[in-house]
Specification:
This protein has 384 residues and is an alpha/beta fold. The protein is built from eleven helices and 18 strands. The strands form five sheets. Strands 2, 5, 6, 8, 9, 10 and 11 form a seven-stranded mixed sheet that branches. A five-stranded parallel sheet has the order 13-12-14-15-16, sandwiched between helices. Strands 1-7 form a two-stranded parallel sheet. The longest helix is centred in the last third of the chain and has 21 residues. The radius of gyration is 23 Å and the shape is elongated. It starts with a helix and ends with a helix.
Length: 384
């Protein structure tokens, strides 16, 4: 009987705690009466709780990978869907947790400020009855932060690309930017290249912040799905900063992951040796600044290597350059296939065998894939 009473008391406490969770909503549901949604020319993100639709969600076809060893298993053609893109204005909005989740002044969580539903589930934001006292900021500030901000791919595609939304509003272009504390060199360089005065940067460290007027440019969604508006804005801006190439594409790049703890190529020495005989150079992208990486890939004839953030730079490669990636069955991400399809670049997959945190690839298969792509390039050059 004593055990039953304790169980009942425990259940009552649990139910009371669940009922005290902050309510969840979305920016559109909370802030978007029909009259306020519209193109930037007809609606402003400033005002008393506003939601402005900038790009509607869309779909686009992703071509099958041209050089996949087993195209029926991976690299198949498929349809890609993207979600609505918007700019929201939240009076007395808050940023809470080190995952930069947004809440209203009343504590209601905007679920679509989490990069995924899984992130929200793993964050403590939905489970907090009370947050510590917030640092208060007067005036309007723009959020330029999200989870995975340290990662090169996510910084480019999920965070700094949101400047393209702010550019469309005259009253937002010069506002202070809320950025994660401790930005890396390539991140500061990217802001410089996009013309952001560093005096506008306001660092946040994950402790609660309340802003008199919080401007939230939406995350490109779904996660790790390239959005056309992001891709072509980044490509245009950064290639213009690098300037035109001095000669036709000539660099054969092998992207190493020696600087990463995950998905290293365990038989890299063997594969590197074969690639070097084919004229490839090994590149560790983290050894270079952002503009240097843009220039490297701008001049690429072909790019190969294990799947990773370094392949983000295919964004700057010629549309004729094949992109051949080695991946693990435990980490099948179609983002690079989708990106290459959007840019018109030939793509290829090779599945390696996972060994601990690394990958072992079939060197013979990979060499054949690379040689096939090089043969196609030779034919294309001779016919042009």
């Amino acid at each position: 009987m004593q055990i039953k009473r304790e169980v009942r008391r425990g259940m009552r406490r649990l139910l009371g705690f669940v009922r005290s969770y902050p309510e969840q909503t979305t920016f559109a549901a909370e802030l978007a009466p029909a009259a306020s949604a519209g193109p930037p020319s007809e609606a402003s993100a400033a005002g008393s709780g506003r939601y402005t639709l900038v790009h509607r969600g869309d779909s686009f076809p992703c071509r099958a990978s041209k050089y996949s060893i087993d195209p029926e298993t991976f690299g198949r053609a498929h349809e890609v869907r993207t979600e609505d893109v918007f700019v929201a204005g939240i009076p007395n909005g808050r940023l809470v947790s080190d995952q930069f989740i947004v809440t209203s002044a009343a504590g209601k969580i905007f679920a679509d400020s989490a990069i995924t539903k899984r992130q929200l589930a793993h964050s403590d934001a939905p489970f907090r009855r009370r947050w510590p006292a917030a640092r208060c900021l007067e005036g309007a500030h723009v959020v330029l932060a999200s989870r995975y901000w340290e990662n090169y791919y996510h910084w480019l595609f999920d965070i700094v690309s949101r400047l393209s939304l702010i550019e469309q509003f005259d009253d937002l272009r010069e506002l202070p930017l809320l950025v994660p504390k401790g930005l890396k060199g390539f991140q500061l360089e990217s802001l410089d290249l996009f013309g952001v005065d560093r005096k506008r940067l306001v660092e946040i460290d994950g402790s609660p912040v309340q802003v008199e007027w919080l401007v939230y440019p939406s995350l490109p969604r779904p996660l790790a799905t390239p959005n056309p508006w992001v891709v072509f804005w980044l490509r245009e801006k950064l290639l213009a900063a690098a300037g035109p190439p001095s000669r036709p594409p000539y660099r054969r790049l092998y992207i190493t992951r020696r600087d990463s703890a995950l998905r290293k190529l365990l038989n890299e020495d063997e594969i590197e040796g074969r690639l070097h005989k084919l004229g490839f150079e090994t590149v560790c992208c983290s050894d270079f600044g952002l503009l240097q990486q843009v220039e490297l890939f701008r001049d690429a004839e072909i790019v190969v290597g294990p799947h990773g953030a370094g392949f983000s730079n295919m964004l700057f490669a010629p549309t004729t350059a094949p992109m051949l990636e080695i991946n693990s069955p435990s980490w099948l991400q179609p983002a690079l296939q989708q990106l290459s399809s959007m840019l018109g670049q030939p793509h290829g997959w090779l599945l390696g065998a996972p060994v601990g945190e690394g990958i072992r690839a079939d060197a013979d298969q990979f060499e054949r894939m690379v040689c096939t792509a090089l043969d196609d390039l030779t034919r294309d050059h001779s016919s042009s």
